[in-house]
Amino acid sequence: MTDPAGGAPGATADVEHTTTAGTAARATAGTAARATAGFRSRYGAEPAGCWAAPGRVNLIGEHTDYNDGYVLPFALPLHTVVAAAPRDDTGWTVWSELTGDPVEFGPAAADEPGLVTGWAAYVAGVVWALRDAGYAVPGARLAIASDVPLGSGLSSSAALEAAVLAALVDLGGLDLPSGEQPRLARRAENGYVGAPTGIMDQSAVIRCRAGHALFLDCRDDSVEHIPFNLDEARLTMLVIDSRAPHRHADGEYAARRRSCERAASTLGVPALRDVAVADLDDALRRLPDDETRRRMRHVVTENQRVLDTVVLLRARRVREIGSLLTDSHASMRDDFEITVPEIDTAVEAALAAGAVGARMTGGGFGGCVLALVDADRAETVAAAVRAAYAERGFTAPGTVTAIPTAGTTRLR
Ligand code: GLA
User: Fold this and answer.
1) Which run of H or E residues covers position 390?
2) What percent of the chain is modeled with pLDDT above 90?
3) Which of ligand 1's atoms lies nearest the C-alpha of 63?
4) Axis crossing angle, helix 341-352 with helix 378-392, rounded to the nearest 10
5) What distance in Å separates the CA atoms of residue 3 and residue 150, rounded to the nearest whole number?
6) Active site amino acids
7) Which residue has the CA at smallest separation from atom 5 of ligand 1?
8) Could you tell me whether strands 140-146 and 92-96 are parallel, antiparallel, or unpaired per DSSP bridges?
9) Of all protein residues, whose CA lies closest to atom 11 belonging to ligand 1?
10) Residue 250's pLDDT band (boundaries 50, 70, 90)?
11) What domains can you pick out in the chain, each with its CATH number?
């Protein structure tokens, strides 16, 4: 949720097309070339390999992950690449193209959450989580380049954690199956960096498949890869970077978690996932105040919207998910209260210009909007959002078109 400085800002600068697999692969190769060149010039040697982890958006299912619920993210063709090689000793040196200054730490700093700070904390957090789980983590030199923009809610932090984790697992020959890697990467963020996020982001960036959305049950980590073929439906997914500054995002996120936990404990259930839509009215009556009621209503109805979306996608009825996306946005705006004026403006302008559906994606208080649009209307919708922004005096939004991409991979 928070953003490390391992990525390049401005990657969403006005209408870029990442729509074809070929364009995406070329862009990733460029990121890998920067990481490799950075490795060579910083360390005077060749890296042993390059590992790439993507950013993500969530198609639907917001603030459901920490309620043991359902999410449906897909990976974006924007990557963080780590070029790495082992060191002879147990120590870690990390360089990022964004800051230029390398950070070095040893086991003592890695074993004490909070000792490594700033963007390198995500790297130290991965080392910490691995060591804490009993793995013999190899010392390593790492060089990082990224096209996942910072501060846009596209999970640049999870991409950094996942790429570093993949590199260390491979370099050390560690026995950590990819299905178990999201929990470990999340521990780095929760336990070392101190951000109380759920399991969605790390699962998405590690487990997604090209051409599919990841239907994840956050209670037991079971997944189904759901075909999400936009071309076949003649649709395009616009990812609109609201460019809204994240206002109090961390504190508000934690407050939403607390409300949900309060609601679950009042109802005597392990998590809000255990409240079915059919039981919602009864559950609402048992909660003490209006705010807690609305927070719960969002989570319960959002879980159902994920299930309904999955049914439609399995039946290849992609266009029909539009109204679920728009309903999800209204629920985040009115019940969960996590949207901001820039975000609502982008959604309203996109819908008014003919988008099939639109919603904020991610934790909220800024970040990105998804607009599902007819392929031949992408430019029109993007232009309408820009015009609405200009009218209100907001910083111009960025727009990219996105296809579902694969999760973390070794490039060479
Ligand atoms: C952030 C968190 C996720 C999830 C979303 C909201 O992205 O990192 O765990 O809670 O917000 O759906």
Assistant:
1) helix 378-392
2) 90
3) 12
4) 140
5) 6
6) 201
7) 363
8) parallel
9) 363
10) confident
11) 16-228 (3.30.230.10), 235-402 (3.30.70.890)
The structure tokens listed for 251 are 């504190």
Q: Taking all residues of the chain, what is their mean pLDDT, rounded to a whole number?
A: 93
Rounded CA separation 309/226 (Å):
10
Model pTM score: 0.94
Q: From ligand 1's centre to the CA of 254, what distance in Å?
A: 11
How many other C-beta atoms can be found within 10 angstroms of the C-beta atom of residue 348?
16
Strand 409-410 versus strand 398-402 pairing type: unpaired
Q: Are 143 and 38 in contact (CB under 8 A)?
A: yes
If one residue of 62, 64, 65, 260 were mutated to test the ligand 1 pocket, choosing by the most ligand atoms within 8 A of its CB, it would be 65
User: Where does 181-325 show beta strands of DSSP type E?
Assistant: 212-217, 223-227, 235-241
Provide residues with CB under 6 Å of ligand 1. Answer: 1, 58, 62-63, 65-66, 197-198, 200-201, 362-363
Compute the distance from residue 242 Cα to the ligand 1 centre, in Å. 17
Tokens (6 digits) for 310: 């999955």
DSSP state letters, 208-236: --TTEEEEEETTT--EEEEE--TTTTTEE
